[in-house]
# Entry
Amino acid sequence: MSDNRNTIIAVILSGLVLIAWQYFYNVPQMEKQREAQRQAEPLKPAPQATPGAAPGAAPGSSATPSPTAAVPAADAPVASRETVLAAGPRIKIESPRIIGSIALKGARIDDLALVQFRETVDPTSPAVVLLSPSGTAEPYYAEFLWLTANGSSVKTPNAETVWQQEGSNSLSPSTPVTLKYDNGQGLTFRRTISIDDRYLISIKDEVNNLGSAPVTLYPFGLISRGGKPPVSGYAILHEGPIGYLGEQGLQQFTYKNLDEAKTPTGGNSRGIVFSKVTDGWLGITDKYWATALLPETNATLDTARFTTGDKRYQADYMLGAQTIPIGGTGVANARLFAGAKEAATVGLNFPLVGFGGYNKQLGLNHFDLLIDWGHFYFITKPMFLALDWFYRLVGNFGIAILLVTVIVKLLFFPLANKSYASMAKMKSVQPQLAALKERYPDDRVKQQQEMMEIYKKEKINPIAGCLPVALQIPVFFSLYKVLFITIEMRHAPFFGWIKDLSAPDPTNLFTLFGLIPFDPIALLGPHFGAYLVMGIWPIIMGITMWVQMKLNPAPPDPTQKMIFDWMPLIFTFMLAGFPAGLVIYWAWNNTLSVLQQSFIMRKNGVKVELFDNLKSTFQKKSVTTETKKAT
# Structure
């Protein structure tokens, strides 16, 4: 009666674990993936849509300059990117990795697409769009201004200013562009914009004062993002405002943090303000893409801010005042990173190995933290470096995962051997443990005492069998983190049907792997349909896990035994929604563990009953087949 009750409890608990996992992990993940796919679809032009404008956020002090940045009004209609881009004069951007344009109105960098990255695994799908102009559904742009103190009558270029290009060339790594604006008060503004062959845009601003009085100006740079940016919503990944602000270190905020901020920053905006920052950078990051303002490392930022207001989010900085005498020239340099968070491009700091990237090239302050390596960077960084090294060697990240798994198994080989040897001894004393149950059928305490005596006599550590699983946890986590955050794994194929190692296995057992035109999510909804999603690799992983569990000695407690029996099935459903690369790792690791454990068991004189039974079955079938042929 007691054993039956324990079995029922174990089944119920296992089912609750599976249901909770599906509800709190798989279902939200599927909904986010579907939402991301909907957002990736091209926007349809809105009828009779025209871009609107509203004043931007200004710093809080009345003596501080007040920037004016045009953004869509809260109730303004939106138009397609194509409509807005065609509405005014622009300068083309043509580089190996990004294409787009710069608006002469406001001199905004507001049109960038990453030509080496596509929305889907289909190479003909649209390029990933990073920046979009004001007036679209998701405005996202960078702007650089000269500000004056509040109350000043000096006219400086703002979001409504139309600059004039000197020359007619497009912006490319070999051809910078120069813009000019005359304020009609004796000030001439000249801006030279250059771009490298990756994702760095450099801006050099010059102001010539031919007026009748000195002028005080403040260089100002901003990144503005309208609407509610989509985020993955996972605790292991930061998305949103980010910066490394000198001695104040890494600063990361969510969009919700800014929504809840109370500090006024001028106008309708509020946010988080840092003062007197030296050697800092700041911007906005997504899972794979980012924009960042990179002031000169020796510059002191009077303010560095993360703000929100008018349905937008902004990262900006302001440098100290420059007083330009009559006949003098003021100069301000700025840099903008806008692109993919590739480790080799951004940088990866790690002792002896790693990538320099912009972090080293520009002497930036921990710019490699733009990629969220997490608190356990000492595990995730080496894991990525190993995967990347093998990828460069073999040309496939899937094979790299298999090779790294072998290396990890070799590193932990001595510890795993001791663990498997202990498990083999436990397997060998199973008849003695079974005899204890018959000798003391109703005395659990006596059973436990005699069992411990057997373990002591045979020098068996009953918890040593947990060591292989414990060893896998940090590797499992680091690989999951690397697969999830690094763009190098995005759309990385394996063999056959796996076209993206960072996404779940696209096949499904319940549709007979595509033979039945049945979408369980569409038919049953995400809450119930999620239980009918099971790819080939999760099934392979579940089988290998079941085989490995069968090699282990059965727990003496019926409840524990039932839980262990159900564990492969539970893990199969749990990992069905994980990245395919992670499931492939787990299946391959299980296979290597089975081979290693079988060898050690035979070495210790323990029969591998599972394999022996399979061998016996095949032999019987072979004899039967030969008999039939002879007959």
Notes: Residues 1-5, 36-62, 66-75 have pLDDT under 50 and may be disordered. The first helix runs from residue 2 to 40.
